Amino acid sequence: MMPTLPVNEIFETIQGEAHWTGTPAVFLRLQGCPVGCAWCDTKHTWDVEPAFKIAPALLFMKTIDSKHHAEMSVADLMEALDEFKAHHIVITGGEPCIHDLTDLTTAIIDSGRSCQIETSGTFPVKAHRLTWITVSPKLDMAGGLKVLPEVVGMASEIKHPIGKMADIEKLQAEIIPWTPSHADVWLQPLSQSEKATALCIEQATIHNYRVSIQTHKFIGVR
Fold first, then answer.
1. Which pLDDT score, from 0 to 100, does residue 221 have?
2. pTM for the whole structure
3. Topology (CATH) of 5-161+174-179
């Protein structure tokens, strides 16, 4: 039996954050996440419940915020991706790295597409070596998981959610020492608040970081 991944949704949009901002992309959202971020806007992806398993054919008919998910093989997923025009694939969640993504990322890259994983950094990354790894470190979350230094060390970029100065201090103390020199560090204001945005601008200027604004929200796409 071919291994499968629990898929919550697949949709085409514009990547609105960090390095790939403005890039047409297909988002492949996987089910399952034990991290427990209080502000998470996809809490419906946290649990993989058998009662919510549906056939892949029904995936595109469910509501966006539904717990329903389809078990799909790499072959199933590649066939689904062929229905979209965008050539950049973003694997997100949930926390996608609770799954082994080696076969999927290899198939995506071998098909001539680019591939990006968005991860909290709390699980080892198992993926093709050319996968773009966006680590959005989730520190001191309810799930009690630690951000792994070896995952930070694999990062193509760091995208850190910022709400207050304490978030900057944690970034400096717990993430920056492990961040590769080639990886840009992006500060992303929580909830687009004016206070958090001003703090991100100030600290990015001081530390030579960058500011990531969720531009997809401004242009009216997901």
1. 67
2. 0.95
3. TIM Barrel (3.20.20)
